[in-house]
Structure formats: structure tokens, C-alpha cells
Amino acid sequence: MQPAASAGAIFQVMVDLRPGSPTFHKHVTVELSAANRRAVFLPRMFAAGYQTLADNTEVLYQVSEFFTPESEGGLR
């Protein structure tokens, strides 16, 4: 998955869900915005979530697989 904000801004959180990884369950955050033009690559087995920081924000995602609702979940 590769998210980027094409308009406005988002606060992106990514969590490593790879069992056995030295960074398992650790997270990293980044602000993605149209102004800073950043994008993020997330490998398989990473969770991602975001919160919009501006009205009328648009987010572009590129994914490698079709959407599968049964694979969706949440973290606390």
C-alpha cells in the first residue's frame, strides 16, 4: 500500500504486525500533505490508519491486491 495526500493533509500511523520482527507491534507516524508531497510505502503485514487534518482532504492509495473485507480489523 502506498498512501499520499493529493489535497489537504493526514496524520498517518503504521504498525508492524510481522511476527518475529524486531519492530513487532511498534509504530511510526508521519504527516502526509499536498504541501509536503510525501508518500509512504507499507509492506505486507503492516497495519495503517489515518486521521484527516484539513477539510476537503483527498487521499490516494495504491494497493497490490483487491479489497477483502474479511481481512479488515482494528487495533487498540
Order of helices and strands: EEEEE
Number of helices: 0
Task: Choose one word for the global shape.
Answer: globular
Instruction: Give the fraction of residues assigned to helices.
Output: under 10%
The count of β-strands is 5
Question: How can the largest sheet be summarized?
Answer: 3 strands, antiparallel
Structural class of the secondary elements?
A: mainly beta
Q: Which percent band covers the strand fraction?
A: 35-45%
Largest sheet, spatial ordering of strands: 3-2-4
Q: Give the overall pLDDT as a whole number.
A: 90
Q: What gap, in angstroms, lies between the N and C termini?
A: 21 Å
Low-confidence spans: none
Work out the radius of gyration: 13 Å
Q: Can you describe this structure?
A:
The chain has 76 residues and is mostly beta strands. Helices cover 0% and strands 43% of the residues. It is built from no helices and five strands. The protein has strands spanning 2-7, 9-16, 27-33, 46-52, 58-62. The strands form two sheets. The protein has a three-stranded antiparallel beta sheet, with no helix packed on it. The protein has a two-stranded antiparallel ribbon with strand order 1-5. The radius of gyration is 13 Å and the shape is globular. 9% of the residues are buried. The model has no long low-confidence stretch (mean pLDDT 90).
